[in-house]
């Protein structure tokens, strides 16, 4: 009788795209995917240390290919061009089909301002990335899979803010109505795309983090962060690494019956 081999996820020979994979939660996705054998195509917008930071992951995991691409996810033409480039760059000669098997649409932005001060520019800044940008990259990858007649898995990084209004202190909201509503929109988009593409073998799910220690939260008032952490059943913000297990599971064949779902990794915030 052979010894149990445990539960494992292995993406060897597969290429997975991570938008915003150069820092924050996305960087944790990039590292976790590389550690699981995936070749990773990282999309970033314009961060000055992106190439160096992605290069560090290459050094840590020399057995896999990791490459960074500058690309604004809100620009449809650029997204299409970059996805086709990734398809070529990661091609495996003996494999006739696309090397891309998964996508984490993670890039997102926020503007914190009282509603009376928000502008149409703020709206476009947020929705162009958090909703249209997610749509753009998901569609480009799904088209490639449909053209190649291959299956694939998409994980959309939404937020627990799709369901709740975050608090800054008792009975006082964190003022970011465009951000919260964009996350509600992208969680619904997840279900719609899952419904349309299920027949093509394409699964689409949302991962919805609670408070995570990244640049997005580090810039906020410490008193507010302590208050938010104190409200959580688990009593603390998450480390970016704590988002990776669910994302990798959803990308893998272990999740072959999961589509159209939204999975909250929120330290228990939504219990109350
Ligand atoms: N942190 C949290 O507590 C939290 C909670 C719930 C949900 N989330 C969600 O999780 C995701 C990642 O958050 P984070 O905190 O890790 O963010 P972050 O540290 O602020 O990083 C944002 C990432 O998105 C990329 N990006 C932004 N606009 C882009 C564009 N137009 N095109 C391509 N890439 C773009 C950035 O690229 P550059 O580096 O080049 O600018 C960067 O890699 C977001 O969708 C966020 O809403 C975060």
TrEMBL record:
The keyword DNA-binding belongs to this UniProt entry's keyword annotation: no
Keywords from the UniProt entry: NADP, Oxidoreductase
Gene Ontology molecular function: any one: oxidoreductase activity, acting on the CH-OH group of donors, NAD or NADP as acceptor
Gene3D superfamilies reported in the protein's UniProt record: NAD(P)-binding Rossmann-like Domain
Coiled-coil positions: none
One Pfam entry name: adh_short_C2
Record's keyword annotation contains NADP: yes
InterPro entries: NAD(P)-bd_dom_sf, Sc_DH/Rdtase_CS, SDR_fam
Recorded family membership: Belongs to the short-chain dehydrogenases/reductases (SDR) family.
The name this protein goes by in its record: NADP-dependent mannitol dehydrogenase
Species this protein is from: Candolleomyces aberdarensis
């Amino acid at each position: 009788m052979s010894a149990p081999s445990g539960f494992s996820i292995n993406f060897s020979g597969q290429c997975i795209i991570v938008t915003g994979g150069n820092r924050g939660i996305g960087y944790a996705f990039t590292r976790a995917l590389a550690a699981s054998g995936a070749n990773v195509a990282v999309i970033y917008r314009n961060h000055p240390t992106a190439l160096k930071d992605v290069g560090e992951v290459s050094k840590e995991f020399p057995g896999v290919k990791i490459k960074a691409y500058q690309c604004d996810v809100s620009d449809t033409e650029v997204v299409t061009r970059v996805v086709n480039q990734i398809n070529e760059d990661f091609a495996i000669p003996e494999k006739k089909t696309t090397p891309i098997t998964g996508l984490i649409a993670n890039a997102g932005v926020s503007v914190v301002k009282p509603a009376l001060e928000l502008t149409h520019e703020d709206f476009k800044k947020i929705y162009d990335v958090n909703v249209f940008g997610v749509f753009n990259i998901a569609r480009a990858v799904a088209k490639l899979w449909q053209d190649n007649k291959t299956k694939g898995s998409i994980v959309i990084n939404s937020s627990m803010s799709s369901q709740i209004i975050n608090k800054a202190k008792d009975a006082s909201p964190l003022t970011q109505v465009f951000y919260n509503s964009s996350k509600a929109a992208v969680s619904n988009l997840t279900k719609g795309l899952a419904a349309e593409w299920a027949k093509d073998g394409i699964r689409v799910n949302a991962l919805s983090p609670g408070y995570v220690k990244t640049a997005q939260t580090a810039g906020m008032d410490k008193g507010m962060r302590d208050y938010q952490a104190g409200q959580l059943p688990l009593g603390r913000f998450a480390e970016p690494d704590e988002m990776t297990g669910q994302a990798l599971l959803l990308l893998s064949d272990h999740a072959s019956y999961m589509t159209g779902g939204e999975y909250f990794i929120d330290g228990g915030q939504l219990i109350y």
